[in-house]
Amino acid sequence: MTIAVIDYGMGNLHSVAKALEHVTHENVVITRDPRRILGATRLVLPGQGAIRDCVGELERTELRGLVEDILARQGKPLLGICVGQQMLLEHSEENGGVQCLGVFKGEVRRFPADMRDNFEQRLKVPHMGWNLVEQHHEHPIWEGIDNQEHFYFVHSFYVDATDDAEVFGSTQYGKVNAHVAIGRESTFAVQFHPEKSSRAGLRLLQNFVTWTP
Question: Is there a smaller number of Cβ atoms within 10 Å at the N or the C end of the chain?
């Protein structure tokens, strides 16, 4: 039994791998070897930085087609993290517009430059730090995690998914309702960083490694 953290040159690979090793006795590998990725029982698609760079590196390492094929089959559990979530949408506003993998319908949008809360106080962009996640639907990934639990975020862009049935969690930042957990069949993806989210994040990773879609 192997969990493969897909290494296409972008993402907090070692922190994610260490967090996974903390919650499971399964073999955790960081790899870009197509054979090891195909042979793994579970996959993690991380991402960090600009989405154009992430999509570009996925193509440069010749892993985009492999990842798209795995996602299309929807058989092997896959967890997307941060930009690894955003890449699963159709399009991102970042970098003047980037076509993404198109697994989920919707757009990745930028937080407004003049972010305000309900009291018209200025908010910083990027959205950085701890925030509550509202769970929309039950899912094995949420098992043992309280609704409105805190998770750790670092992002200037957010997912606006089209299909409410595929939105499993959201976060309110100012007047923006960001879709921070999306899923369908064997794919689940989150905007926050479970590897940096203390007890709740480790529980989410533990749920992922025991999840049978």
Answer: N
Q: Are 76 and 41 in contact (CB under 8 A)?
A: yes
Instruction: Provide CB contacts within 8 A for 38, sequence distance 6+.
Output: 66, 70
| C-alpha separations of 120 from 73, 125, 171, 174, 207 in Å | 46, 15, 18, 9, 38
Q: pLDDT of 168-212, one tens digit each?
A: 999 999 999 999 999 999 999 999 999 999 999 999 999 999 999
Which stretches in the chain have pLDDT values below 70? none
Residue 80 near residue 153, CB atoms below 8 Å: no
Q: Taking the model in full, what pTM does it have?
A: 0.95
